[in-house]
Amino acid sequence: MSVSALGPARAAEVFRRTGVTPCLATVLVGADPASVTYVKMKRNRCAKAGIRFRHVELPAETTTGELVAAITAITALSVDPGVHGILLQHPVGPHIDERAAFEAIAPAKDVDGVTMASFAAMGFGLPGFVSCTPGGIMRLLDAYDVGLSGKRAVVVGRSAILGKPAGLLLLGRDATVTYCHSRTTDLSSVVREADVLVAAVGRPNFIKGQDIKPGAVVIDAGYNAGTTGDVDFASAAERASLITPVPGGVGPMTIAVLLAQTVEAAERLLDV
Length: 272
Ligand code: NAP
Fold this sequence. Notes:
Layout: H1 9-18, E1 23-29, H2 33-49, E2 52-58, H3 64-74, E3 85-88, H4 98-103, H5 116-124, H6 132-143, E4 152-156, H7 163-172, E5 176-180, H8 187-191, E6 196-199, E7 217-220, H9 233-237, E8 242-243, H10 250-269
Parallel strand pairs: 1-2, 1-3, 4-5, 4-6, 6-7, 7-8
Helix pairs in contact: 6-7, 6-10
The structure holds NADP nicotinamide-adenine-dinucleotide phosphate.
């Protein structure tokens, strides 16, 4: 499963109507190699989508207080009219209060959907920015016309940025949702009931084909060392009706949603 990314036309249209180019600002704490790579990928995709990109780097020893001050005061991203979306690259490291850092992002610019305001809006089904990976999963399901109403959806993983919101979004579309996590007993039997399975565990090849219900739609959100997903693709593909590969499935959708939400934020902030 794959769908095309956001094209440059929408950002260009914002510029045509307002004279302002949508702008995403990223904040990176430290120099974790994976995080550096993710920021680079976002920069490249912004360039292709015609979105301006600003980047702020902070030393790894930054404390939460300093980080919040940096986000709000030094870079002033939340109040800068030239910035429409803000992304704090996470994880930010164990010494940082990540929640406090996220909450420094103005909800109107929270294009990564990490603030409590965004999460609540998603939970209530109100307009707002969704967490990008779950948002990308929903776009994939829609692009492939996967009916969700009345379907049994199983989400393996319950992190705040991925599993939990993915389940809420599926619930919002009338799926019957079950969450699995590290304390779930007999996980295989729950997974076997899934018409739609979302794997968000962070363990390579954790879910095997033998547990996939024939005809199920399988979304593998995992991205593990060696570019391996959470689902054993070869065995699962034999039973699934649709399945996302790793790489090339959910990952590119995450950035596509980030960019789409950046342009959307610009449209709202500029009253387009
Ligand atoms: P996370 O915060 O570590 O959460 C992992 C979840 O899996 C937790 O809820 C955990 O349960 C559950 N889990 C762990 N071991 C389990 C087991 N043996 N049985 C059942 N459940 C188990 O990870 P995350 O941030 O959600 O990321 C999950 C995966 O998605 C990772 O591979 C990550 O790289 C990938 N990811 C991809 C993208 C993308 O753009 N493609 C974006 C974000 C994340 P507990 O809650 O009980 O601990």
